[in-house]
Amino acid sequence: MESQIKILLTSFIISILVSLIILPILKKLKVGQIERQYGPRSHLAKQGTPTMGGIILGITLIIMTAILYSINKKVLPLVMIIIGFGLVGFVDDFKKLVLRDTEGLKPAYKIIRTFSNFSNICIIFNKSGNRNIYINTRTKSDD
After folding, report:
1. Residue 47: which region, alpha, beta or left (left: phi > 0; alpha: psi -120 to 50)?
2. N or C end of the chain: which has fewer CB within 10 A?
3. Domain interval for residue 107
């Protein structure tokens, strides 16, 4: 239990430090929410709200993986799954914010990329011979 708390606190501190770096950059680039022209009027108030905060989580995840990978090599495939799904969200936000496409990534493309990511991970697990994902949720007090 003590090691999980250390990991949680470390990732929290890293995410705060990364956000102190990333948020000013996003504000400088004027990365804000763009609402669809034909959406509900109540959503127009969200116009300009900072977005793409997933970058902070992604960077934190990569840093924590680098730290933990030397401890537990079973972490890497799970991290690859999360990064793969995060890339779908990044491409969606990138289209909306940088390319000024209010629709973003089409739902069909999101589904295809998500399924593709899942399929790739299944292939990786199959080739590695590791066909089971086992996450130990027991603590020493459970024994």
Report:
1. beta
2. C
3. 2-142
For the chain, the domain total comes to 1
Distance, in Å, from the CA atom of 103 to the CA atom of 34, rounded to the nearest integer, reads: 9
The pLDDT profile of the chain, 143 residues, written as one tens digit per residue, is 677 888 889 999 999 999 999 888 877 877 766 655 666 666 656 666 666 778 888 889 888 888 877 666 677 777 778 888 888 888 888 887 777 777 778 888 888 888 888 888 778 777 766 556 555 666 665 55
Q: What residue has token string 């992604």?
A: 58
> What is the distance between the alpha carbons of residues 96 and 37, in angstroms, rounded to a whole number?
13
Spatial distance between the Cα atoms of 102 and 3, rounded to a whole number of angstroms: 43
Are 105 and 91 spatial neighbours (Cβ–Cβ below 8 Å)? yes
CA 110, chain centre distance (Å) = 15
Cβ atoms of residues 11 and 60 within 8 Å? yes
To the question of pTM greater than 0.85 for the whole model, the response is: no
